[in-house]
Amino acid sequence: MPENLPEEQTPLNQNLEQEFSQPIENTVVLDENKAAEDLIDENSIPPSEPTEPVTAAIMRPHKPWIPSFHGEGSKYFVIRLLNALLQVITLNFYYPWAKAAKLDYLYEQTEFAGSRFKFHGSGKEMFIGYLKMLFMVAVIYGGFYWAKGNQLIVLGFLILYGGLILVYPLAIHGTVKYRLSRTSWRGIFFGYRGELSELFAKFFIGILLSVVTFSIYWSWVQVDLRKYITQHIRFGDIEFDFTGKGLDLFLIKLKYMAFFLVGYIACIVIILVLAVLGFGLGTIFNADIKGGFGGFSASIIIGIVFLYLLIIAILGTIALMRQREIFQFYAAHTFAWQNEQWHGVKLNMTFGDLFRLSVGNMFLLVITLGIATPYVEVRNLHFIMPRLEIDGTFDPDIISQTESEYRDATGEDVGDWLDIDLA
Asked: Residue 46 to residues 49, 136, 317: CA-CA distances in angstroms?
């Protein structure tokens, strides 16, 4: 698949104007006594260019395609609650079935072009992968603690981190391959055609370069992995591409590192100013000297809470700005190939939208001590789906099936262990 997008196509009216303004050579002199069909010389009209893409554009004008999510927090909460109870009763061996139930509900509630997605994975498939994941974890950590117990500290860390480096590409590859192959829409399956050896080579070389460059090269590694995975994803006969560059991602991160530094300095300055004014650190220190912690007054406690919330607000705002820009970077450089043209993806997310979502989620999690996590997940999906769009020249009605099934869920559960998920 080409990595660079083709040049922008000529508008439809310009194509038609050029096509029908061509001069007709070898003009035939008409004879009134002959039938019209005998008078037209077929060779006198120059052949026109293929018009399949133009015809498709005429037949399928459509506004941008936008997915939607119909899940309800209460129903999803019941699913998660039952899963949690069964996991406790079975000492977490019910986890694969719990995950299958979770994915089945979330996929079934996601709609695109009037049709819902379907997850075909089963707890049995993922249970086999779960056992394989437990074996790998046992080998890695067993080797680490064995070396540590024999005073072989260096060997222990080599076993631990070397094992993680070996397992990480397996987790990415397995998660993508299994999850996509068990996902369908209108009976058309997704698929992943990447090779584990190629992905491992990219990851291993990227890790070495990141170590040598003190993690500076990690942005390039992330982009290279996403590009490789995206280019090997199929949705029926639809192909995909990612055109982002490592330098662009690095500059985004560098910009917000500078913002974080400025934010930290601003917080320190604010604290020092308040201390000089006799409110904040100065008051706390005086109280500590005079009466210890028992001498803290209500005003001091309020001051501490105020400073803490101020720091969270400043640094949290910067973190949200960074997250939004990275999300939009990934979306803006993702394309789908159909009808001999590329179809772009947009993420229409403002900072205000993301800020309100995050504050609401934090409030729910804090006041419920994390019990509202299922509601937060549903809120996130209701937020993100309507803000994604694919341009209207994409035609979902002509997608044809090309992918086969894949049932090995090993990477899926290793991916959970390493906190890897599709995004």
From this structure: 10, 67, 62
